[in-house]
Design goal:
The complex is a heterodimer.
Chain A lengths: L1 E12 L2 E12 L3 E6 L5 H9 L6 E6 L7 H4 L2 E4 L11 H11 L5 H11 L15 H13 L5 E5 L7 H16 L3 E5 L3 H7 L2 E6 L2 E7 L2 H5 L3 H6 L2
Parallel strand pairs in A: 3-7, 3-8, 5-6, 6-7
Antiparallel strand pairs in A: 1-2, 1-4, 8-9
Helix pairs in contact in A: 3-4, 4-5, 5-6
Chain B lengths: L7 H7 L1 H6 L2 H19 L1 H20 L5 H5 L1 H22 L6 H7 L4 H31 L5 H25 L6 H28 L8 H27 L1
Helix pairs in contact in B: 3-8, 4-6, 4-8, 6-8, 6-9, 6-10, 8-9, 8-11, 9-10, 9-11, 10-11
Classes of the chains: A alpha/beta, B mainly alpha.
């Protein structure tokens, strides 16, 4: 079953086409790594899939629905460049806030469960502004996974993570994939990403230069796709 | 949890109980509570707004001859100018509060309608601006020796403040990603507020002169109409403002 379909998407910033006729899809249970140089359009594509902005042309479907449909948003988890948690609230308050926004049956229990999953239960009442960078990143991971989304959109999720946070994220992503979730992640950390990926898409100046299955030679040599299909 | 071979969207549609919990009113309250809690922790906007209001009231006290009957006629204008300027300091923070850590993205990504998000934020702003006004009002009364009938003044305050809040919250959302948002917000807000401020000023001056607001039904209708019209417009447009 196709989870995410990107069908001929163009996105313009003024006259500049940040995305040019992008066509991609990801099945349920697949992990698609979006790779490409800085400015290739990875973040723009992820933001458009997440429904933060509308494509100039083309369409995006998540399980056949528009990304901005309320029920679709309930099924998407996003980790962007920012951690998207409030500095002036505690870790527990942040997670219960998002649990309530997503309409979870028991927000308190969900928050406690994810604080434990990410190793933050001891600092549950600490204000986020007092957290170290690694703790903040783990809280961001908990926030994105909290509502058990079917599609995870991750924008450079391994950047600036400490070892523990990388291990937590990799474990959670493996579990999510094993449970049939779909993961689309943009990344420059090819080694970590390709270990998890089933598919790879290389973006070059807003267009798809390569889209296919992740092969053993890609995992063995993460630069292989760039060398073969890049500029 | 949706199983792998079932469309998660379809599974989500079946979760009627969870949807009920996410009802519109509940989401409005969640946003309202979050904004109030965050503001009460930092007190950034309220402290600035209150300090500004008190300082301006003190300066007006020195600038105008309080024994002059003409001054009595402009107390409504003085008071609402202070409220409008002080209110902008609160409103400027409304969506700007979401910028650190890209929290606005997470709110836009959540299954919360733009209308619920807007109404939650507008109500939080309303509480904060009204609190600043209710603290400023006795200060105004002491300096100017003007006392208002509380019930009627509360009606004018409630309606006038909602007008300021609705317009300010919409433009706070519209200007949130603009570099000069602190400048742009008042520039966009004040011209739109003219009818509401005129109505509130006239009724407040009448109250100071001992006249009932019920003798100013036209201005009262203007104020109510302004609030209803702009609230409806804001609720209809906010999704476009947030996502484009």
């Amino acid at each position: 079953m196709t989870a995410v379909t990107v069908d001929g998407v163009w996105k313009f910033y003024g006259d500049y086409p940040a995305l040019r006729d992008v066509r991609l899809d990801a099945d349920a249970g697949a992990c698609l790594a979006l790779i490409g140089r800085n400015g290739a359009g990875k973040t723009t594509l992820l933001r458009t899939i997440a429904g933060f902005s509308k494509p100039g042309k083309g369409a995006i479907r998540i399980f056949g629905q528009e990304p901005r449909e309320t029920e679709t948003r309930r099924n998407i988890g996003v980790i962007g460049h920012g951690i998207a948690v409030y500095d002036e609230l505690s870790a527990y308050e942040n997670l219960t806030l998002y649990a309530r926004l997503y309409g979870l049956a028991d927000p308190r229990r969900a928050a406690l469960e994810w604080l434990e999953q990410t190793g933050l239960e001891r600092v549950r009442d600490g204000l986020v502004r007092e957290f170290s960078r690694g703790m903040r990143q783990r809280l961001a991971v908990a926030r994105a996974f909290l509502h058990n989304p079917s599609v995870l959109l991750l924008d450079e999720p391994f950047t600036a993570l400490d070892d523990r946070a990388i291990a937590v994220l990799q474990r959670l992503l493996r579990e999510a994939l094993a449970n049939g979730k779909t993961v689309i992640m943009s990344t420059h950390q090819l080694r970590e990403a390709l270990e998890l990926s089933t598919h790879v898409a290389l973006l070059n100046r807003g267009a798809v230069a390569f889209h296919g299955a992740c092969t053993a030679e890609m995992v063995a040599d993460p630069g292989w796709v760039y060398a073969r299909y890049g500029d | 949890m949706a199983v792998a071979n079932e469309t998660p969207v379809a599974a989500g549609k079946g979760a009627a109980a969870e949807r009920r919990r996410s009802s519109f009113a509940r989401l409005v309250f969640v946003i309202l509570a979050k904004d109030l809690r965050a503001e009460l922790r930092t007190k950034e906007a309220v402290n600035a707004s209150l300090a500004f209001a008190v300082v301006i009231l003190v300066l007006f006290n020195f600038a105008f001859d309080l024994d002059d009957p003409a001054t009595r006629m402009i107390v409504g204008g003085l008071l609402w100018l202070v409220f409008a300027f002080a209110g902008t300091l609160v409103l400027n923070r409304s969506f700007a509060r979401e910028l650190p850590n890209d929290c606005l993205d997470a709110l836009v990504a959540a299954p919360v309608s733009g209308a619920a998000l807007f109404l939650g934020k507008a109500l939080a702003n309303y509480v904060l601006v009204l609190a600043v006004e209710l603290v400023s009002l006795p200060v105004f009364g002491i300096f100017y020796n003007v006392w208002f009938p509380f019930g009627q003044m509360l009606i004018v305050l409630s309606l006038g403040t909602w007008g300021i809040t609705v317009i300010g919250t919409v433009f706070s959302a519209l200007t949130v990603n603009i570099r000069l948002r602190e400048v742009m917000l008042p520039m966009l807000t004040y011209p739109m507020l003219v009818p509401a401020l005129m109505a509130a000023m006239v009724m407040t001056a009448d109250l100071a002169a001992g006249t009932s607001i019920w003798n100013q039904m036209t201005w009262l209708k203007v104020l109510v109409g302004f609030d209803v019209l702009y609230t409806a417009a804001a609720l209809a447009l906010v999704e476009t403002v947030l996502v484009g």
